[in-house]
Write a structure and sequence with these properties.
Layout lengths: L3 E7 L2 H23 L2 E5 L6 H10 L8 E5 L1 E3 L9 H8 L21 H15 L24 E4 L24 E6 L4 E6 L1 H4 L4 E6 L5 H9 L17 E7 H4 L5
Helix pairs in contact: 1-2
This protein binds 6-phosphogluconic acid.
6-phosphogluconic acid (6PG) binds next to loops.
Length: 258
């Protein structure tokens, strides 16, 4: 599947979330039709909450038992914490739909050791996608890179500094090329975040960036039209064999030269 990038602009935030819910369900139906399951990674932050609520109300009777939910990143806090992405998704979606608990793959971010939480989550991904781990046998001939998962869909948000998931500018995880999930130290938060790496993002069959509101307009223009050196993290999301769809409302798209 050749890589494509497209931008969809909706008149208002409610229109944006309706269109995003329809695209989510369209991608789910395609994956379930093709392979019997839909593996999707959800984004955190505040923007997607309205989408998750809409999925819960308008698609309550969807075949959620064929949907497998992961998290593209997580804050290093327990699932009960107000900052927890899992808590946001649980309150806006999971508690309102019939999805088997074993279909929801949560980052164990309550683990005080962020690196251990990241390794544990990577192990969850490797088990679910039945991936071979990297072989570090030490004798050059035996070294084999690990395999990477191919999500059917990854939802992403856009941070004010151009970050996405928890891949922040000038942070160590930007250059990770073999791990699937890492604990990324984010100096401005004086904390770790547990996040997917670019190799995982860029192997997805489909990526949806969701951005809403005037406060995103500058960064949307910078990411979609700007030449940044180094590129902003969101500019490094380039699926090698997949679809990249930016879904925006008019306010977020206001500064694009169209
Ligand atoms: C997180 C997200 C992060 C988010 C952006 C946008 O855990 O915070 O994964 O990448 O998508 O920061 O956040 P808002 O939607 O709140 O603007």
């Amino acid at each position: 599947m050749p890589s494509t990038r497209s931008i969809e602009v909706l008149a208002s935030a409610p229109d944006l979330f309706h269109a995003a819910a329809e695209e989510f369900v369209r991608a789910a139906r395609t994956a379930i039709g093709a392979q019997g399951r839909f593996a999707v990674a959800l984004s955190g932050g505040s923007t997607p909450k309205a989408l998750y609520s809409l999925l819960a109300t308008n698609y309550a009777d969807f075949v959620w038992n064929r949907v497998f939910l992961f998290f593209g990143d997580e804050r290093h806090v327990p699932p009960t914490d107000a900052d927890s992405n899992y808590r946001m998704v649980n309150e806006s979606l999971l508690t309102k739909i019939q999805i088997p608990a074993e279909n929801v793959f949560r980052v164990q971010a309550e683990n005080p050791d962020a690196a251990a939480a990241a390794s544990e989550y990577e192990a969850q991904l490797r088990r679910f996608f039945e991936l071979r781990s990297a072989d570090r046998s030490g004798d050059r001939s035996g070294d084999r890179p690990g395999e990477f998962p191919r999500f059917d869909l990854i939802l992403l948000g856009l941070g004010p500094d151009g970050h996405t998931t928890s891949l922040f500018p000038d942070s160590p995880a930007l250059e990770e090329q073999s791990r699937l999930v890492v604990a990324n130290w984010v100096a401005k938060f004086n904390a770790h975040r547990i996040t997917f790496t670019f190799p995982v993002l860029n192997r997805a069959a489909e990526i949806i960036f969701l951005a809403s509101g005037a406060d995103k307009a500058d960064m949307v223009r910078q990411v979609l039209e700007g030449k940044n050196t180094p590129p902003l993290p969101s500019q490094r999301v380039q699926p090698s064999d997949g679809k990249l769809l930016w879904m925006l409302d008019e306010a977020a798209a206001a500064k694009l030269t169209r």
